């Protein structure tokens, strides 16, 4: 028995590097950790996109409210009924015109209230009460 233990100790002390089993265990643990991190990042990206969409909608709503207040328009007359969804802020709200002739009296949100016509990524519509909602 002593001779067997001595032989095992001698073999272990002469061994250089890792065994195949040790390498496979380490690689599998790293793979599992990478999968966990990747799955958690998907949730973070979805949450960030949702918050960006909410912030964009609030910005369009504030711009519409500012335009109505500055122009002295009634909130109920800013957005006509049956307005289609658009992401073109140069034509939002529907019936708005740059010269205020023949429309609702409202001016478009771009360029005065929203800086860039490419600002919005989604389409928006507003109801007759002046509330902005995501359109389809």
Describe the structure.
There is one protein chain. The protein has a two-stranded antiparallel sheet with strand order 1-2. 51% of the residues lie in helices and 4% in strands. The longest helix has 52 residues, at 20-71. It has a domain at 58-136. By secondary structure, it is mostly helical. The relative contact order is 0.13. The chain has three helices and two strands; from the N terminus they run αααββ. It starts with a helix and ends with a strand.
Rg over C-alpha atoms, rounded to the nearest angstrom: 32 Å
Annotation, overall tally of beta strands = 2
Give the overall average pLDDT: 81
Topology pattern, helix = H, strand = E: HHHEE
Give a summary of the structure in a few sentences.
The chain is mostly helical. The chain has helices at 2-14, 20-71, 75-78; strands at 124-126, 132-134.
How are the elements arranged and paired?
Blueprint: H1 2-14, H2 20-71, H3 75-78, E1 124-126, E2 132-134
Antiparallel strand pairs: 1-2
């Amino acid at each position: 028995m002593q001779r067997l233990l001595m032989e095992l100790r001698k073999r272990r002390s002469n061994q250089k590097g890792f065994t195949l089993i040790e390498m496979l265990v380490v690689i599998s643990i790293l793979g599992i950790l990478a999968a966990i991190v990747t799955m958690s990042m998907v949730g973070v990206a979805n949450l960030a996109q949702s918050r960006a969409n909410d912030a964009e909608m609030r910005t369009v709503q504030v711009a519409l409210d500012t335009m109505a207040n500055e122009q002295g328009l009634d909130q109920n007359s800013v957005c006509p009924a049956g307005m289609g969804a658009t992401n073109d802020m140069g034509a939002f709200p529907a019936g708005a015109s740059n010269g205020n002739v023949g429309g609702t009296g409202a001016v478009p949100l771009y360029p005065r209230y929203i800086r860039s016509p490419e600002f919005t990524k989604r389409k928006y519509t507003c109801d007759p009460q002046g509330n902005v909602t995501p359109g389809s």
